[in-house]
Amino acid sequence: MHIYADEITVDGDRLKAKAYDETDRQEIIIYSKIKNLQEKKFWENNRDNLLCVVNGDLGKPQRPTNFNQFNVRKYFLTQSITNQLNLSSFEKIGKWEPQIFFEKISDRIHFFRKSAIDYFDSMPSPLAEYAKALIIGDVESCFYDQYPGISDLGLIHLFSISGFQVTYFFVFFKEKFQKNVFSQGTFSHIDCSCNTSFFVFSDSVQSLIRPIIAAELSLFASYFNLRVEKEKIWSFSLATGLLLSPMLLLNLGGQLSYLLSFSLMFIAHLKPFKQGLLMSSVTIPIILNSKFTWHFLSMPANFFSIPIFGIVIMPLIGLAVVLHPFWTQAVCFINYLVALFADLIEMISKIPGKIVFGKMEDYLVIPLVCLILLSFDQRKKIRNFSLMAIATAFTASFCFIHFPMNGEFSAFDIGQGDSLLLRTPLNQKTILIDTGGKVALPQEEWQISKTSSNQAKSIIINYLQSKGINRLDFLLLTHGDMDHVGNAKYLFSSIKIKHLIVPLGMTKTNSFRREIKPYLGKTDVIEVTNQVQIRNFPFRILHPFKSGSAVNEDSIALFAKVGNLNVLTAGDLPQEGEREIASRYPDLKIDLLKFGHHGSKTSSNINVLNHWQVKYGIISAGRHNRYGHPKKETLETISRLKIRAFNTQTNGMIRFVYNNDKSYFQTFTKDFNDSD
């Protein structure tokens, strides 16, 4: 593997690198675990481009396993990366010695880019993150987690190195040098070279393809005194961009880049306010289709942020880059101003006005974009028709998403854990049962990652928002194990939860005080046994029978009629608890069972399941989990009783969808394995 120094990312004890496979002539993503602090320092301080022998499991990038989940595999495909190397170890590491001229140039470019990254990292935060993102296109994976307001207000385009930077530097150098220093021809040569160097130095990011091609073509036409229509420049940049990167329009950045530049060609007749309104509104269908939310303040935020960026932020960052080695106090003051701007964005994003719209249907996106463009047409009849069609389409789409005729009982593929959703027709009731989560193992300080994997946000909240759900009526935690409650704190900070239901005695446990209580806010807490039945709660509580300490034996067992099926779920309740339920409720019949304890042999008593006459089952367990779930004994029970079982390990997310007319099971995929 040939690895460039500037394409290595170290986060805690995890290493990620983009490598070039010298044997198969392909780019590959490498994931590896760093063994010790000394090894971590080597990777962090390395500036050499390396030639390595790497041992690991070659496979395709991770695919989504839940409905409406971000598709990592598709994203890497747009970067022409189709494979990744997992659990890799470095057998041999040596410095790469380029042999031919172009390899030597590439080697120096990546060396200086790594030097620039290290230089920016020595600056205070957030100045360092802003400089890396805006000057060399290096955006850390934790950037938008640190500054969520940027995403909520739709300001990502300002931090994605693109035409903004190209235009800014072009205008800056033209004003400073062309009139006083260089002739038109000389300036064109210099600017052309700078654009090309900027593209290469920014790691050839896709978002720069269009503005660089357009800028080069404009300079070429200007140099030879040719008049080339802007439509032809845009079309040529699109054709060339697709030639260089065929997947360019399959990612959000490429779509927004070409759409916004296309819109710019038709706004000359508009006043400045309407120009800004068009540029903000034309992107809404694409954003709703991929992000599911929109903030009322995103338009005014863009109006004010763009000029502030051009007039204040960009010059300040450029000044700080120059002054950093010589004048620490000035750099600290600039960092203070940048931090004020960052805090202002976060403060504005927290003002009420965020709309959870839901996932707009794919077939509506392009027609709506066209209608929005036509709504700014000079002809009044076309404007009126377009506005009416837009209002109708958005209103109808919103109603279909927020008031669906069907309901669902779903099991998220949350790894080694449990998380179930009951959504009744018309979204009248939304109940989440457990949140999933990971057991935190003891770590040394150098092993701690800056970006923790947040399943609550990427899987649960993402799915809820795609369905237009902005609040939960009930969050029920069956017991206190981390694989059932570990993600709860992220949910409390991201979505409104009216009631929290826990087994009686759980509020006295250390796990509740540590993982739940600090994040509750105004959520009402209800402790329950089988004697407590909650108003407007669609489940009947069958267990626990007494107060406990929220261990497996105290798990809440829930029963409900969901569509045409009787459903039972009972957390990690052992076989003894199942027998007690069967004894107390002898007439209980179950059609759909969420198998207890992830398919462990400690649950799913064969006699009880046979008595309940279970027809369907759901197993929620992680792939390659260290416990070996589901156990052989449970699978034999399923086979003997002829239960049709679904497993998140192989089926991904599992949904039982129902309405008045029909009901059916739907899995994310029929069957798959890691090599698919």
Automatic annotation (TrEMBL):
Broad class of the protein's primary localization: membrane
GO CC term, one of those recorded: plasma membrane
Pfam family, one: Lactamase_B
Cleaved signal peptide residues: none
Membrane topology: Multi-pass membrane protein
CDD domains tied to this protein: ComA-like_MBL-fold (cd07731)
Name of this chain's protein: Metallo-beta-lactamase domain-containing protein
Protein's organism: Oenococcus oeni AWRIB429
